[in-house]
Amino acid sequence: MKNWQKKVLAVVLAVALIVTGFATSTFMDGNSNKVVKETTVSKTNDNKSDVAKADIVSTKDTKTEKSKEPNVSENKNNLDNKIGDPDKKIDYQKIIRETKDEDYRKAVKVKKGGFVVIRKEDKNTKPIEEEQWYKDAKATDSEVIMENTIKDNDGKEYNQVSYKITTDEKDIWSIIDNTNSQNTVEIAEPVYKYFTSEESVPSAEDNKGMDKQWYLKDQKLESVWGNEDYGNTAGEGTVVAVIDTGVDYNHEDLQDNIWTNSAEVSGTTGADDDNNGYVDDVHGINLIDPNETPMDDHGHGTHVAGIIAMENNNVGGVGIAYKSKIMPIKAGGSDGTFNSTDIAKGIEYAYKNGADVINMSFGSSAHSALIENALQDAFGSCVLVAAAGNESAPTADAPPMFSNKVNMYPAAYSYVIGVMAYDENNKFASFSNWDYAPNANAEYEVVAPGVSVYSTLPNGRYASWNGTSMAAPMVSAEAAILRSSLKDKDTYSSRYIMGQLVGATEDTITYCNEDVKKTYNYKKLSLTASLTNKPKPNITVDEIYAFDSEDISKANNGDGIIQPGETIDLAIGLRNQWGAAKDVTITVNATTNGIDNQYVEFVSDKEVGIDDIGSFGTQNNGFKYNESKTVVGVEHPIRIKIKENAPNDLNIQFNINYKAKNGLDENDTTVYRQSYDTTYTIHIVKGTVLSGKITEDTTLTADNYYIIKNSLLIPKGVTVNVEPGTKIQFWASDQYSAYGDNYIACISVKGNMHFNGTESQPIDLFPGKDFEQYCVNVKKSDSGTVDMNYVNITNPTIDISSGSHLNCVQNMDLVYDRYFYNGNLCIDTKGARIDAEYLGKSKISNFRSKSFDMGAMVFGNMDTVLFDNCYLTSNFYGDGFIGNVKSSINCTYLVNEATVDLDYGTSRYASKLVNPGEYFRTPDCSVVSNIYNVNGKKYVAYKFDNYFYRENYVDGYDTKAFDNYLTLEKVLEKNNANLAMLNLNDTDEKNILNKVFNDILGEGSSKDLELAGGYYYDEDNDKILDVKGEETSNVERYSFSKDSKIGTYRIYNSAVTCYGNRNLRKYVLVEFPEEAKDSVINNPNISLENTGVLKNAAFKGNAILNRLICTDTSEWMKIITPSNSNLTYMATDNYWGTTDENLIQKQLVDFDTNVQYGDIITSPYLNEPSEETYPCVSDIYITDKNGDKVDTVGNGTYDVHVLFNRDMDKNTDPMVSYGPDDPYTDYTLKGQWNSSREWVGKMPIKVLINQGHQYFRVKDAVAADDHWLTTGTDWGRFEFDVTASGAEALTLQSEGRVGSIYLNWTQDEYDTMAGFNIYRSETGEEGSFKKINSSILSSEEKEYEDKKVEAGKKYYYYFTVVDTAMSESRPSNITTNASVDDKPPVIRHTPLKSIINGVGATITATVKDNIGVQGVTLFYRMEGEENYKSVAMNNTTGINYTAHIDAEDMNVGNLQYYIEATDGTNYAYSGSIGEPNIVPVESKAYISAVRAESGIVGKSMTGTVKGINFNENDKVVIDDKEVDTEYISAKELKFTYKPEYMGKKDVQLTENQVVVSSYKEAFDVTDPNVRVYNDEDIVVKELNIEKYIYLKTNFSGKLKSLEVKMSDKSFISSISNISSSSTGGVYKYKFDNQTINGGKLGYFYYYNATTESKPEITSVKINGVEVENLDYDQDRISFIEQSEYVPVKSIKAKNSSVTLDIGDSFTPEVTVSPANATYHDYVEYSYDSSILKQNEDGSFTAIQSGGTKMCINSDGVSEYVYVTVNEIPVKEITSESKKYSGTVGNIVTIKVNAKPLDSIATINWSYNDEAVRLIESTDNGRTCVFELTKPCSTTVTAYYNNAKCEIPIEIFKDEAYVEFGQDIVTMYADETYTADAQIRNETSNQKRNIQWTSSNTAVAEVNSDGIIIAKGNGYAVISASLEKSSQKASIIVLVNSSATSYELGDVNMDGKVTAVDAMLALKLALLDNPTDAILGLADVNGDGKITAVDAMRILQYATGEITQFK
Q: Three-state SS string across 1512-1534, please?
């Protein structure tokens, strides 16, 4: 396909996508007056058509007789159609139904405290206060909002009154529902909240001007204002009502354009002079507070008003209609919300007081009947405009994929212009709501400017705002301009103005929605077009009805279903959106692709003319109505006959269009048509409709086709038989689709219904066409019977008595089921359901559901049933599993998981079987009486809280009661006991019961007691037997019956009887032999194992076939028990797909999973499926050509053996296939039956590439004895591997070489092999491998050399085989290797500058290598020595190495040394033998040791300093003071020193007052007078009080360090320190020689709880010396006993609040009571220390303004004093500098002074944040640091209240740059070069570093000092730039070694000669000394130097002009 062809196709496809739509389709039965939904009508366009230009015309007479009738088809394309055409009566019931939706109620916002009621009233109507709904609502008040006179359908007038009802009830929606349920009101609704539609609210701007109003030019307003062609008007004489948050009517740009109520201006203040219901409404009204004016307290309304009518006064901007008047109506509060009652009142006020346009820049999804009534009343005189909203949401007719779809009211009403927004670039605004189906429902009609809209704000301000709120007043203003030109409202109606505004423009705004890949073209607002153009007709097909009444043709039966041979009439209605249409003709054909439908005959013409249609008008071909205003026929039909030979289930498509002329422009000769056909599809049915009631026995036969379209009842006493082969369709055309679906297709059976299908002629039950997702509903009710045999059912929802040979299939993810609830039609979305008392030999497939609470379920008893790929949910409240299945025998559960579409994606869900099979309880038994020994037996009473079987209601109805009774007796017999068999004629035995009564209920109890005893009724022999089976006369026969079998003793008022009971009581009387031990009697063994009752009759013989090879067990069907560990479930004798007990257990959720659950017993289990089980695959295995079983296959042919659990029909082959993933049908096998239970298929494997895991799929094998039993879809349970075969397969080897890694491999070749791919990784981790060959290696290539490697670095490789289909094999083995290293280590070393003789020297270096350093050696000698000595350098950390040269090896002179490093292969040097590093060894003084005894402060001491190179001028310095020094020798000095303070002393040596050497911590000085002590007490050990314990000292001197060692507590220093640390209770602090004079060293917290031990301080060191006088006394932390403790009862401050100025002081006056309280004198204060400081005398001084809450505490009792410190205001601010300047990037520090000086108030700053950036503000705003960010002149302002200081800053462009001395350099590897980079034009006041980068670090690196280090051959660019500057300077680096050869002329060594090489050669021509290697590459003419000639020759060579250089 050529490019132009592709483009044409793309356009065609795009148009096809755009033009898809929907229309309403209905079918009418004229005789029965029924309207039946037939099928979907589809359109092929978005209802777009050409728009005609408008002319002067009235729309009053554009409607025909239809206009007098209601428009009955309200669902005009969908359920969210436009509501409330002003020509229609409002459908209140529809609104009520809409508001009942829960999603609707969640979405809308309502005002609490009231609701709205609309009702009809006449003289007989009672007051609302007497209405029951008023009382139910607990209403407290009512207010009339609106009152109108309305006509009903018969033309009778009545009053319609709208009330606002006040109530304190909170549940408004319940009140609404209750009120709407009563027939005394038309509708009740909440007071809805509406919201403004501005998108954002930026801060107001001070600057003003029309230059900000881009929309004025956009709308070409300057060409309209004052232009006579346009009426010479700017809206003069019109009034625009702005219903909003009010308007600032005093704004200088609005005040002269505010509407004035003249009657009120000259009227009486406080009176309603014009009787309009509002007092003093001079400039509009305030509905929020009627006592106030409509002044704006939000800003939104003022902004809207300014867009419309800002004055033309050169003050600010200009309004679009600047001569119009604004009528302010305040309905919105200061929070921007509106109530529906206020909106309705505002609309009423506007139209009654002369408004021409009403602007509504607010909206809500709430559909208010109150507002709709008001708008309809206003439409006759006002143009209505509203904002579409800002949620980026489509209209409600969008598909479900749009979760935010919504209609925004009032914009969504068809007679309100809904306004969307666009921006200055004609782009649709991202925030704007949008119309999903333009013209279809006419929600939003036009797009107007709505981004950056500049307008007024209150208080003389202006701002630019975004939102559809700003777009709506654009339309309102232009409506005012139109109205000012077209003043005659009788001629130019509101509808006409709307048509001009929307229909006359041909400009569009395009919006593309990515979600649906669809482009929309919306009408763009254009004032000039509205004033000059005439709208063109915009007609769409609106309604379609079809009729088959008997008066049309005798062949018609009028049943509403179109059948072959019938003649139908089509009734068609059109709707015109804009303009006017005349000469309108409707056309119809039945042509598809140019071919007429062979089953259609047109009886009438294919065209019919209808009346003209005006704007918003509808017209039709003569709809006929009955008295109920229902469409019953058509006067001028398109009549069509369906031919007799039309087949069943045929869809016939009719194409509908129109022809029309422009009714507004006589000169327009265009014939307008729809650009597409509206298609209408009719479904043809041959069949009999069954509905209503079948009153006599009936047989449904196979020669008929039956349709259940409504409820069908088979009453009691009636039998319906269904013959074999009969087909019954459920769901068909809806009889009332135009009025909302309200029917249910179901069969309800109260009599008998027998479905008698056969294997060869099954019965089919299925949903009809277009109803494929609906259910087939057949249910028995009451005592009805439904039996089904051999029936296929699609989407079953059935409740039957029995079923056999059913095939039940769900064909969609969801099934719809309709039903009525409380009179309302409801629709459930769920899975299919079956309820069968018995179901056998049947198949259930694909049952599933999206909904978790309405899942697919199966109920009843199952026998030999297949559950195939189902997702069945569970009902935990039932007593079965998979819902309520009671038993499951021989069933197959095959892969019971299903893929479910969840809208947002698909997911797999597995079934859950809950409460499987029989379950048994372990009874709870307790002894409740004494043991009584009577007549040689022992008697005792037991209490049982539950018994053994599932139906168990102790002391209540129990269907298993008698079973439990017999089981209880068996249990007792195993305990050598029986239920008691008393002889009540024996007084002693009878008395036992009275004694037991007293034991259980207490003596004298008035209650009765019943106990089970040892007699029962034998129903078979009609006898009373005892539990031993012997007939007895001990009880009376008449007291027992078949319904009351269990013998029960009853004791009441000492009277004892025995009678039969149907229930087993919780108390039983038991008898033991006399020799029984009491311990046995008190502890009977009643465990289930001891009962013998454990049996499995309900869940056995089943095959549970999960995909056990899937390790995600969430995809397995699980057997689950309830959370009752007292239960045991029997699930024995089943096959679980495995014999691995661990895997069996993983298919259960029971006691072993969670001890709260019951236990499931699965053992014994079956090793394979039973042959009685529903047919299934029992195993699949593969054999090779030798007959051996294999799991992995390669090249060749294999046999696949499929084994079944029972005999299968050998005449039918199963479908066997395999594949790697869903649907597992990649390859289908052919084979044959080897036996009746084994099928063998041939599996040829031709592709040798490894295919990985493959999975089998088997289906449709047929049982030999019953062909109905076919196997399900068995997939994913059996797997195998396909791999490449042969000995040499996928084997990879590697070898490391210099600069590369060599790979080679072996692999068998085969026919479809294409070649190989090589993959490499640097880590070997999965997912990290990347392909390194650029194209596929051929199959002959089996080696590869990877040259893109780093030496010594390890790489990982594998390869894959690629076939001719470009699929790849699995990876080969992974091999790893590294290339041989040829790079030496890199040494970095800074040579020593000097060495002191006699001290020695330490040499350091950093060494790194690409693979690792093996060793580093230091070689050294003194200059003049012959040989070097060596010492190994030690690796200290990372890449750091160190070595030491002893002093003895050096003397004064020069030391020579070099460093050698090796990686084991290569060597590197810093220095060398020939050129070593040289460092002088100098003779300088040096201290090696200090000898001195510890000194004592105040006492002189002497010491000795040892070292070298001393002289007589040297002085010893201690404590920064020179001390007496005596020179002894060059190696010794003596000193005398008198210490002033304790500590470890440093000794320094000075020469001419210059320190030449020092010695740290030479000796200690102690001070016996220094004390460290504590003196606080903590008393009363019972009180939990936390206190500081301070450690104090009398030390005076310089503090360098402090060390405290203590137990249990943490120590905190009180002195400012430079560092701290703590380990093991030792706390260390360092200080900067801080001078102290005694005082607090620090503190710890002590909390004197009774359990807390006293802390102990064991040592304190000051300046490193331990204090000898540690006077820390634990006993000072003393305790007293509780008896001595007197608690504080109260604490009271004299003043509760104090106000201070800064510097003031006060002392809190506090009284603590009682006076003898233990803690009377211990008062603590907590407060904000930034505001107050506490003085030593206990007073407090105010230090900063603010407030603090001072807490005064004593002994846990608190009092509070509130302290306020007044701020000293700043009166004057001055700057230290009048002006600042700098370059972009500079930092400027600005300081200001504030007066008075004692004020500490914070100064604020304002500035342009584009020009400067505030970095830091300190000193309460008096110092600010700014970064300069943009070249300009700007001002920063410091201010405090009225004090202000403006400081100008001049910011210059940063013109600094870096410059190199040369632009190219040549180097050898490992060479270094220092780049000569200079900074030019630097004006920054900040030092800026040069930043260095290299374009190729493999060639050259550069460090931060600009030193370039050559690394390897090639070309690199070294760049230098200044910080915060984008300018760069570059130098080219060429590195090459002569040992490497490149092509002559390849200067940059990239493997080719190009123009770049010529450029480099030209640069090299200017270089004095290039390296020989580079010279050899660039000197192409061989003259020994590089010149411009060489550059030219290289360029000629590169361009092909020459082919050689010489």
A: CCEEEEECCEECEEEEEECCEEE
1599 has pLDDT over 50: yes
DSSP string, 1350-1385: -BT-EEEEEEEEEETT--B------EEEEBBP----
pLDDT band at 879 (very low <50, low <70, confident <90, very high): very low
Of the pLDDT bands very low, low, confident and very high (cuts 50, 70, 90), residue 1364 is low
Q: Assign 560 to helix, strand or coil.
A: coil
Residue type, 1411: I
Which stretch of 259-263, 327-331, 1075-1079, 1242-1246 has the lowest confidence by average pLDDT?
A: 1242-1246
223-227, 241-245, 904-908, 1652-1656: lowest mean pLDDT where? 904-908
Question: Phi and psi at residue 635, in whole multiples of 5°?
Answer: -80, -35
Six-digit token string for 313: 């006064």
Query: What is the rounded CA–CA span in Å between residue 376 and residue 90?
Result: 10
Q: Residue 1399: its pLDDT value, please? A: 81
DSSP state of 1137: S
**Cα dist from 873 to 854, 882, 1844, whole Å:** 8, 6, 75
Dihedral angle of Cα 265, 268, 271, 272, to the nearest 10 degrees: -40
Give the residue numbers annotated as catalytic, written as ranges: 244, 300, 469
Residue 1783 in this model has a pLDDT that exceeds 90: no
Three-state DSSP class for residue 1952: coil
- Please tell me the distance from the alpha carbon of residue 1176 to that of residue 1274, in angstroms, as a whole number: 8
Closest CA to 580 of 657, 676, 504, 507: 504
| R_g of the chain, CA atoms, integer Å | 51
**Phi and psi (nearest 5°) for 1287?**
-70, -35
Max CA distance (Å), the chain: 148
Find, among 1465, 1500, 1678, 1484, the residue nearest to 1581 by Cα: 1678
Cα–Cα distance for residue pair 263/283, rounded to 1 Å: 11
**DSSP single-letter state for residue 164:** E
Name, in order, each residue with C-beta under 8 angstroms of 625's C-beta and a sequence gap of 6 or more: 69, 72, 631, 632
| Euclidean distance between the first and the last CA atom of the chain, given in angstroms as a whole number | 51
**Which strand (E) or helix (H) includes residue 1884?**
none
| pLDDT, position 1273 | 93
CA angle 1730, 1735, 1739 (to 5 degrees): 95
Note the pLDDT tens digit of each residue in 1802-1815.
Answer: 899 999 888 899 98
Q: DSSP class of residue 500?
A: I
β strands within 1135-1269, DSSP E: 1148-1149, 1159-1161, 1177-1183, 1189-1190, 1192-1193, 1196-1204, 1215-1219, 1227-1228, 1230-1235, 1238-1245, 1252-1259
| Closest-CA residue to 816 (of 795, 837, 788) | 795
Task: Tell me, rounded to whole angstroms, the distance of Cα 99 from its chain centroid.
Answer: 28
Q: Which two tokens stand for residue 1811?
A: 């020009």
In this prediction, residues 415-430 reach a mean pLDDT of 94
Give 387's contacts (C-beta < 8 A, 6+ positions apart). Answer: 197, 360, 361, 362, 363, 408, 411, 418, 419, 467, 468, 469, 471, 472
**DSSP structure class, residue 926:** E
The span from the CA of 464 to the CA of 673, in Å, is: 44
What type of residue is 831? G
Q: Are 18 and 513 in contact (CB under 8 A)?
A: no
Question: In 1030-1131, where does DSSP find H-type helix?
Answer: 1078-1082, 1088-1091
Residue 259 has phi, psi (to 5 degrees) of -60, 140
In the numeric block, the tokens 């439908």 are attached to: 597
Task: Single out the residue of 361, 364, 355 nearest to residue 108, CA to CA.
Answer: 364
Cis peptide before 394 (omega within 30 of 0): no
User: Helix, strand, or coil here: 218?
Assistant: helix
Q: Is the peptide bond between 923 and the residue preceding it cis, with omega within 30 degrees of 0?
A: no
